[in-house]
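Morning!

This is the sequence you dropped in the shared folder:
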Amino acid sequence: MVLSENASILIGDFMDTKLSGVKAVFLDLDGTIYLGGDLITGALEFLSRCKEQGVRRYFLSNNSSRSVEQYMAKLNAMNIPCNSEDILLSTHDLLSWLAKNNITRTWAIATTGMCQMLEDAGISTRDDNPQYVVLGYDTEIDYNKISTASIHMHRGVPLVASHPDMVCPSPDGGLPDVGAYLAMLKATTGQDPAHITGKPNPGMIMHKIEELGLHPSECAMVGDRLYTDMEMAIRAGCVSVLVLSGEATLSDLSQSGKEVSVVVDSVDDLLR
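The structure's back. Tokens below.
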């Protein structure tokens, strides 16, 4: 482990902060590109270096509270140009799983934006006879959604969750995310989810890597969470880049026992 002048930490000797040989980067959003409503210092400059060096960039988020259009609007408002093809959400992974399992009827604990994505795909979200209860990061949660979901689960309806994140990072500290909601439903019904989509499932990015015709070793996953971002990178065989601008700390990394490729304070340290 080597400490560099800009306080970046490199783990192993096969990769550095220049990300030599990397042709595409998958970028977490919350805690990596922005924190709450504020850009991480140097994020725009990093994205400019991606363009200058011909490194393709994609934005990933387990945060299923927003639709693709809402993410595009937020990024564009932060002077980050992007289109729908640049954004990969846990909701996309969820939709793929629902389709593979022929699920079209659900009761969703989800925001209006997430429900719209499901309904656009032909999946009901307020069904009286659901095949599954769907749990997303619902920042519009209310007691009716929770109580109705609990009643369905007590009747034997299984649960699928969009992602496992315990907290959503914010400038004021971690906020309750899907993992916290899962704990509540477990306490209420005794049931665990039948499946959890999103990061760290490697399928979240592997379809895009294959579409690009790249090898996983030519791609980097950049994020602030060990149990989702870094775990997915390791499972997929990508370069794993941990940023310390969000949730994880060096102490967390040490205690986790995970081996990541690069650790930096923020994306501002990359591609220089």
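Headline: The chain has nine helices and 16 strands.

More detail when I'm at my desk.
O.
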